[in-house]
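Practice problem: predict the structure.
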Amino acid sequence: MDPLMIARWQFGITTVYHFLMVPLTLGLGPTVAIMQTLWLRTGNERYLRMTKFWGKLYLVNFVMGVATGLVQEFQFGMAWSEYSRFVGDVFGAPLAMEGLLAFFFESTFLGLWIFGWDRLPKRVHLAALWIAVAGSIVSAFFIIVANSWMQHPVGVVLHDGRPQLVDIWAVLTNNTALTAYLHVLCGSLGVAGGFLLGIAWYQLWRRRKDGVDTLDARGRVVVGASAEPGRDREDHAVWLRSLRIGAIVAIVGFGGVAVTGDMQGKLMFEQQPMKMAAAEAACKTGTSFSVLSIGDVGSKDCSDVVGIIEIPGLLSFLAKGDFSTTVTGVDDLLPEYQAKYGTTVPDDPAYGAAAGTRIDYVPLMEVTYWGFRLMIGFGALAAFAAAVALWLTRKGTVPRSPWVMRLALLGILAPFGANAAGWVFTEMGRQPFVVAPNPTPGGVDGVYMFTAAAVSPGVSAGELLFSLIALGTVYGVLLVVEVYLLVKYVRGGVVSAMPELRPPQDGEKRPDDVLAFAY
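Answer:
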């Protein structure tokens, strides 16, 4: 067993799992805050119901995100101690800012929001939520700064073989970080939008199925009410408004993803040309974008990769914004990388069994090629579904078809898939470097690290395998718990977050429990 491969699988699985929660937190947080702001300004009960229902799902996801995120930084010391030693002087500042500043505001003020219902003045209570949401957004910025430095190291000098931070401002304003941060925020809006749309569609469909809402002769909704607690006329407004907000947020988010993704592609062309070429299976230097290629994209010499559907000039547009710039292919980049960084792993004990082995500078093109297309495909599918949803609900409700309802629920997964595929592409495309070199003008020579040198030398394959299985099991249990809670509260509707809508039964006295909203 190869300790390096096990360590990579462990970090990849836990990180991708954790990032399923992150975009939903980042996108749903400001959405809930806007709902509460509308309630404060208008006094309309539908916005209070929306705030409490979506806020409850937000809390479930937030707690799971914190629980799974704590493992990430522990892994740096457990499985990646050499990496931690190499990047520690740089990562210390943004990660300290994230923990001491952003996460402090995030957790503290979210607690005030949970406990503050009907106890704090309404404006103060709303401010607590906005501060918590802002903390989440700022927290994400510092994490992206750290990750982007690995993609494009700046603001350091090389001292005794290790990067030493000399310009924190350069690290914080790294163009790779700023573009990636905007991309993540836009992707998070897409996730939140799809989440609102799918769940609201399900609730409107249930009202149709149960005969609460009907249609008139012109096909327009006739809003009804039932004896079931919370399923009144206002309940219909809650779900219809949530669906439309979700659809608009999803469309806006995807539009932002397209713009920021284009910006990232142009930076990638300058900073990580091999990743750019591998993403397009561009084995030969040229200008055409491959919509579909066949052959063994895993072959490192690209000898049998053939483009079936290509768009002339589009690759040049993605790289430089014109239709004529030549993009260097894998076959021509490979000797350049070998000349700059060597053909074999340095014969150093730090590299363990990898010392002296041949360096493979071409990332797994199966992953980069399809990861890039899955990212775009899932995102476009989510935006298209949002536009269709707006059209289908123009008469005030959703179709009664259970198949369309199931598609709407499955559509929740599309933006999650786009985010996950994007991160896999970003991280796998950087290989064989854990810290990629900076080839741009003004880049710091020598600041890069091969992944083979980053793993902890004192950790055995058996120990890593045990931690992989243990963490995978724990994360699997947490996934079951989260899905169970989300499904339970979604099926319960608004009443699951507002038990006061249900009248007391048999002389029941409700306890004055500040956490009734939370659980």
